[in-house]
Amino acid sequence: MLSEWLFSIYSGIASGLAVFLVAAGLSWVFGILKILNMAHGNFFMVGTYVAYSVVGQRPESLAAFMGASLLAAAVVGLLGFITDKVMLRRLRGADYHYVLMGTFALAMLVEGVVKLIWGVDLTTVNPPPVLDAPVDIGGVMVPRFTLFAIGAGLAVFAALDLALNRTWAGKLMQAVAADPWMAGMMGINVPMLLAVSVTASFALAGLAGGLLLPFQSLSPDIGNSYLLLAFFAVIIGGLGNIRGAFLASVLLGVVQQVSTIAVPNFPGLTVYVALAVFLIWWPNGIFPPAGLK
Amino acid sequence: MIARAVAMGAGAAVVGAAFALPWWANPGMLFLAGLTLIQALFALSWNLLFGYAGLASFGHAGFFAIGAYFTGACLKYKFGIPFPFVLALAGLSGAAVAWLIGIVALRRLAGIFLAVLTVALSEVLRLIIGYTKFLGREDGLNDIPRPTIDLGVVTLDLTSSEAYFVFLLAACSLLTAMMWWLVHSRFGRTFQTIRQDAERAAFIGTNVSAYRIAAFMISGALAAIAGGLFAPWTRIVTTDEVHWLMSIQPMLNTLLGGVGSFWGPIVGAMAFAAINYGTRTFVGLAEVIVGGILLLVILVAPHGLLGLVSALRARMVRGHPAAARETPLPERQR
Fold it and tell me: Which of A99, B17, B181, B228 allows an S-S link to B71, with CB 3.0 to 4.6 Å?
């Protein structure tokens, strides 16, 4: 009984960190551009499909798997750069509703293109052999791949947090997020930093797509399932706050997994109820939006 | 004046052609036309909120589903309530739910937070319906019978598709007329002052949150009635009607037609139906075309098809008041 609860908390953390991989880029772009990108989940999906096209259904080694993920990050990052040039640039400063609907239109476009290229069939991809077997941690058998997902989530969080808070470029990003006009007056190349942010955020989505490939079956729907949770994480965490998004992702993952044991008759409901209660009690999130952190 | 006459003539021609539809269209076309009417009404209800009161609900399908399931259950389980009352009750329940959400959330949330909250609530509704045996769980309610309306002297039998379509068209026209009257009344114009500047509206003594809740309730009621008309038309209601993609539909219709105009959602619904009909057989292509068109609309013509028409007209007629007006994307409010 106890091990059942422990296991559900553990898998909650794992799926929460998986969600964080998607939420990180979403939060970053919101923090700096104030654009909530509805298409983020679908670019994540492009990442999964690109990686799948490279490694196939049975990745041979961890190296091949990581290589495919990095390639997916590069491809999606490039798409992000193009998207920024063609579209997001024009949406800066536009009314929130138009931004949401514009990026939704982009999401639809991307979904259609994915269906045209890769079809609509379900496919499953195995983890590379190294990560396939379960492992025994203190009497609880956990799939080794979930450990990998946790590691990836933590690594991405640590890298982003360090980069944003401890490096010169990160400080510049924060300056632009806080006040783009003033940052421009100080001689910071604002358009370039914005383009870099969008590209990096999309690359993160692509990377997440590659890394989480074996986590679920591959279909043109997976973008949506992650997007909604990532959205919630970004909202609960406080818009644009990456630490908040990290905490909220883990929180949502744990709530979701534990609720499958606590209220088994209503799977999936608890997350939404938790979100609604949270929004009403704490309308600005864990860390109220004050720019990029 | 001439333009106005042309527009009215075109509108009358469209409505007339629609009334004649059962006599010449094939059943598939008729079905699609009925769905378009319902989508137009649904989009109209959303635009009351967005275009007039400046609030965006991203879970509007929730209201639609409340009406659809309510009507579907009333007809299927033969509660014996006359159909017009069923529709009215559906509208009332939509308004009641909107009121509840309004008093809890509208005072605290706006913009993105309201958008996400409404998405979450509609997803909750979808899951609850999916767990309710009475409402057919994930499979929904099927075999919903079409109603007959007993008027005392005559009985309207709406069992056939043709008869129900005429009823649908009449109901949609009536509701649209009521909406037109509403948004052009003093009450409706107050919504616009709030959308343009809530702070100033409060300064001149408008009770902003009361008006917002009122707009939310009217919009919810209308969406529920659209759902109520939908259930007997398709004769099946499933949880697809609560899916968030269904919530997006009225936004797409409104944007495509034109946000700033009362008739925009209706024109958009018609254009959207035509696009969907043209691309229905290609998997994936439909999304590419719909998404591409929408993207183009937002980037190039953010005021939709009707915005394009008035811009063209302004260009042709020298000295037209709209000639000086550009059509940029509406800017974000601080």
Answer: B228
